[in-house]
Amino acid sequence: MKQLQVEADHPYTVHIGTGAFNLFADVYRPLLDAADRIVVIADERVAELHLQYLLEFLADWDVRVMTVPAGESAKSVETFMACHSFLLTENCSRDTLLMAFGGGATGDVAGFVASTFMRGIPFIQLPTTILAHDSAVGGKTAINHELGKNMIGTFYQPKAVLYDSKLLTTLPPGEVRSGMAEVIKHAFISNEEWLEELLAIDNFNELTEEDLNHHLEKGIAVKAAIVEEDEFEGGVRKYLNFGHTLAHALEGHLGYGKVTHGEAVVLGMSYALFLSKHEKLDEFIRWSNVNGYPLNLLKEIHFDALLPYMKKDKKSSRGALNFVLLEQTGKPFVEKVEEQRAASAYKNLVLKIGEVIR
């Protein structure tokens, strides 16, 4: 089993591999034994598939379970308040331990609940998707507002991240596709050789558990290194938002959950690569098309419909559009892009996509 240390304000370890939940019985037993209650907040779909598997490893403790809607729809004010109501009904206290069991959305809302219940209780991330290798590490928690994604949230680090890769074997193709988007994002901002390795993949179904663990470990290492340098996103942590300015606008415009986060990020990265005049743009467009990302969505959505969301993006300032771009692979930077240039680039990207995949 692989493990990585995240040296944040409150350091913790990320464990990656089949059987990670065995660590409850030894490494994390003191943490669990100290809790007056243990509450699992689980994605309802994940609970159907894997809750009993998790509970087998928690048999020594009295565990309460609350399920939340699957996917992005969980990140709502209503779900957030329902979780608080559940904790209060179960007589939870500051000594309660929370566990987030699901994908990135579940981790985001459960982490936000943990950070705000009685001003903060400990929690553990138990990610079950590839996408969550990004969101489960680094301490960002949030829910969505109808006017913007992740607009209400906190920075709050978990006590640990236990990533049992056995659970990835049941992921549907759309979730694999979504997760691999964040993996290749980490490669773009860090490592040319790794990027070439990922761009050579033309069928995610052929990835073995060993392959996934390899890529997850590298992605988490990139995320951890950046978080250690800039925990509260005052500087280089913004680079992790490569592709996300347009992606969040697409998600907001279409309605959260109508397109997966990873699919939106791939479209956003295509746009950022175009703005960057990056040499890998054509190859990335072909990779995205072969692996089933919905590039044609950009042709169906007018730039003006996305502009209001981009102006509200957390990376933007005083209405200016700030994008994470690449000087070259592994060398990200933030640049202010004027609206006219942004609109022109969007239109020309649509034309470029048509030329590359026709």
Task: Walk me through what this model shows.
This protein has 358 residues and is an alpha/beta fold. 46% of the residues lie in helices and 18% in strands. The strands form three sheets. The protein has a seven-stranded mixed sheet with strand order 1-2-9-6-5-3-4, with helices on both faces. It has a two-stranded antiparallel ribbon with strand order 7-8. It has a two-stranded antiparallel sheet with strand order 10-11.
Task: Report the strand count.
Answer: 11
| Uncertain runs | none
The chain-level structural class is alpha/beta
| Rg for CA atoms | 20 Å
Sheet with the most strands, sense and barrel status:
7 strands, mixed
Question: Which word captures the global form?
Answer: globular
Count of DSSP-assigned helices? 14
Could you give a short description of this structure?
By secondary structure, the chain is an alpha/beta fold. It contains 14 helices and eleven strands.
